[in-house]
Amino acid sequence: MPLTDSQRIAELARWAEPRTASDREWLEDARQLVAEAVARHPAFADLGLLVEPIGSWANGTHLGSTVDIDIRVEFTERTFHGAAAGVSSPGLARQHRAYGGRWTPAEFRSELGAALTAVHDAVDTGRATALRVPGVPGGRPGVRVVPCFGYLHRPVLMGTEQRGTVVFTRDGRHLVNWPRQQLENGRAKDTATGHRYTYAVRALKAVASDPASAGASRALPSYFAQCLIHSVPDETLRAGSLDDAFRGALDFLKYQLGVWSMFAKPDTLLEPNGITRLFGPGRPWTRSDGHALVVAARRHLGYQR
Known about the structure:
This protein is of the alpha+beta class. It is built from twelve helices and six strands. Strands 1, 2, 3, 4, 5 and 6 form a six-stranded mixed β-sheet that branches.
């Protein structure tokens, strides 16, 4: 059943609440836990490892203390090269052969697991992408520790050199991310919209995470909601009340992602990092996924009765 106007406004106000002191403390506690484990591990002595928060806790769009905190541990002394979307398999094989040193992705992951296990005896090292340190009941949430290497993309003809990270999964895949660009662009948009960018991301994530309100839309990564809201113009997010702004954001997205939108250009939309295309081959979502989510959100929130 759609929310009433008063219920919707109350929900939006809830997602517009500022970060708490506990949130900031938990984020710093998670960073320190990982940083101390890395600093104490003999195999990592004198290595250039960078320990930083990433993801929804870093940018303030997490939905509560049940969401894991993401911390990246980047091996900065070994850098891979490739296209913005990733390096080809032959190119990756050539770079591995040319290196020939100790610090392969598997070795780095193994030693990071050992470092974490030395300070916490319940670390989950069996996940495909990250290592997980369980949370503290009534305290710090779980921590997902992402081992990664430096990644460099140099455009052949035009454009600026971009530095990101590459994560090697246990099942043989590699994922290129642009954490610095994503965080900086998100903060700039949040400032430009009077923090309504963050509020709108939380609100859309909340709808997407609730199967009853998301309707027919399939389960999607919560990051997708952030990508969609990031494509909404700043002036739309600034307009009128918070309720007006969120309605306008969903209306904009419904038009951009609709099949019959003659002048919309969804294929040109970028992720918050400003580098990766939002839609295309290899993406974990489609234009129709976005349209279904937006339609479900409008219905659930009572914008479309």
